[in-house]
């Protein structure tokens, strides 16, 4: 999938990663490092058990993603282990690529059903502040289906300023959210608060649903909406429990709109 998305993933062509000093390297296009190369002999001092679930990392001009592959099963997150991996990848990112922590992850899975199962499993941990929840370890967890839809999403999520490009392509400037509010949304259209799920961010989706539930109870009549791809619609309708309306956008239409910006 990395190769088909245009990522550099050949170990002999990838810049060698290091720690200890800040020596920014050039990543002219997205680069995928498998976990074996990240935890190689040059990092003998690290605890290798922290990488039991991370399968690699993607560096791109705007940041770095931790990569997980759950295939057809629900990811069993290890809070302590994943936190250690997140800290280690943040160190690598600061020393080699960008002066920021790694707060985002890519979660690969066979189908959107896996995405639904993942967030429903997370719901069993009622305490939203529990540090072992995956949506607390990473602020953004983007679900990537293992098919052509996922390949195109990988291409979008590794563009420089990809989030601004998505929102600019989908919403008019006067619809966009400005400043900070009491809950997460991206635009307000005819009084309806709308979230873009075109980035397939499960962590943000969880936060949005909690806000929708609260606002629905405390301010009856408040309207909400979600913008999504066709492959996301079925699982979102189940997860959002009929509390929101939907606007569906074809991936090729979004890509064409972004490309023309």
Overall description:
This protein is α/β, with parallel strands linked by helices. It folds into two domains: 11-160, no CATH class; 163-259, no CATH class. The protein is 36% helix and 19% strand. It is built from nine helices and nine strands. It is globular and about 55 Å long. The mean pLDDT is 87.
Keywords:
9 strands, alpha/beta, 19% strand, 2 domains, 9 helices, five-stranded mixed sheet, four-stranded mixed sheet, 261 residues
Domain module count: 2
Helical residue percent band: 25-40%
Strand order of the largest sheet: 1-2-3-4-5
Shape summary: globular
Radius of gyration: 19 Å
What is the terminal separation in angstroms? 26 Å
Structural class: alpha/beta
* Multimerization status: single chain
How much strand? Answer: 15-25%
Could you tell me the number of beta strands? 9
User: How many strands, what sense, and barrel or not for the largest sheet?
Assistant: 5 strands, mixed
* pLDDT < 50 stretches: none
SSE series: EHEEHEHHEHHEEHEHEH
